[in-house]
Design a protein that fits this description.
Blueprint: H1 3-12, E1 17-20, H2 26-38, E2 42-47, H3 49-58, E3 67-70, H4 77-88, H5 95-101, H6 105-114, E4 122-125, H7 131-141, E5 152-158, E6 169-173, H8 183-201, E7 206-210, H9 221-236, E8 241-246, H10 248-252, H11 254-260, E9 272-274, H12 278-291, E10 295-302, E11 308-310, H13 317-333
Parallel strand pairs: 1-2, 1-4, 2-3, 4-11, 6-9, 7-8, 7-9
Antiparallel strand pairs: 5-6, 5-10
Length: about 325
């Protein structure tokens, strides 16, 4: 059973309802159909109902089992606008601003998540919108989980025919949000990513704090940041397998680890890779995705009060289906 098949099976144990706010994109509409057919989540589409119905007919997609909310006529817009205004008025939002915003599917969807009367558990967007446009309303309205200092993002990478990681499965973090995290922030990303790996993969996370240096083989401020982050993460969670700073080959290849880091607790078996900044994280996941033909699920957010996940604008229908399944598991754990 593949990683994503296992996630789908877990999702079937407790069905969650996931909101999709970009049904005007064919990939999203086809993904919604696929999820309902496979039966691992319920789906809500928010958009222009007439256009959704026309597109569904054109693409031969059955939406009879999918709840469709017409953003043009939805009766809760006034209620949500008032709630949004109350939430954000101290930040300068006017009621007119709030009324305008809830006419956008993403803002309406986030307000649905906050609405305890609605049976909505998570939201996926980003196929045609930027990360900022997807996550801004989530952070404004839902905010972070209790005792969470930082929202970050990770990818689940499933590399075919790979002996490294957890049979080719890795979590890469942060590859989507934090541009140049401090040592403290990097430690939070490491711990959150370890928790996400455990939740989704069900195996022991082994976390490598990546650098161009292994155990002091190079000296610079860039290396010092990772060294300090490793120290902080170990102090916070001494129950986790965390080590660094180390180069990628020392992190994931046992034979190289014996040469470069013989005393490492990871022994070249890392399955959670923490990149020192967004440049390296984004480049790293796309290299693996394209050159190794890996499945890349994400960016998956961690730290938001309810599951809200951002898609890569280059995603496929299958990528969207996978992110919906992961979002459903996050909602179960929430």
């Amino acid at each position: 059973m593949t990683f994503i098949e296992g996630v789908k099976q877990k999702a079937k144990n407790q069905l969650k309802t996931i909101i999709l706010t970009e049904p005007e994109d064919r990939r999203v509409l086809e993904a919604a159909d696929e999820v309902v057919q496979q039966g691992f989540a319920k789906i809500i589409l928010i958009g222009d109902k007439k256009q959704i119905e026309e597109d569904a007919k054109k693409y031969k997609i059955d939406i009879s089992k999918i709840r469709v909310i017409d953003i043009k006529s939805e009766c809760k817009k006034k209620q949500y606008a008032n709630s949004l205004y109350e939430l954000r008025k101290n930040k300068g939002m006017t009621l007119e601003n709030a009324i305008e915003l809830v006419n956008e599917p993403i803002y309406y969807g986030i307000m649905m998540l906050k609405d305890k009367e609605e049976e909505a558990d998570g939201l996926v967007a980003g196929a045609i919108h930027s990360t900022a446009d997807t996550l801004r309303p989530a952070l404004q309205i839902l905010k972070t989980k209790p005792e969470t200092k930082l929202v970050s993002a990770f990818f689940v990478m499933c590399v075919p025919n790979c002996e490294y990681g957890e049979d080719g499965i890795f979590v890469f973090g942060d590859c989507g949000i934090n541009q140049n995290p401090t040592s403290e922030e990097l430690s939070e990303i490491a711990i959150a990513s370890a928790n996400s790996f455990k939740s989704l993969v069900g195996k022991e996370p082994k976390v490598a704090m990546l650098s161009y240096s292994t155990y002091g083989s190079a000296k610079s401020e860039l290396v010092d940041k990772v060294v300090e982050a490793t120290k902080i993460a170990k102090e916070k969670r001494n129950d986790l397998f965390i080590d660094g700073e180390m180069q990628l080959d020392a992190a994931i290849i046992p034979e190289i680890a014996k040469l470069k880091a013989p005393n490492s607790i990871l022994k070249g078996n890392a399955n959670v890779l923490i990149f020192p900044d967004l440049n390296s994280g984004n480049i790293g996941y796309k290299l693996v995705q394209r050159l190794a033909k890996a499945e890349a699920y994400g960016p998956i957010c961690q730290g938001i009060a309810m599951p809200v996940n951002d898609l890569s604008r280059g995603c496929s229908k299958e990528d969207i289906v996978g992110v919906i399944a992961i979002t459903a598991i996050q909602a179960q754990n929430n």
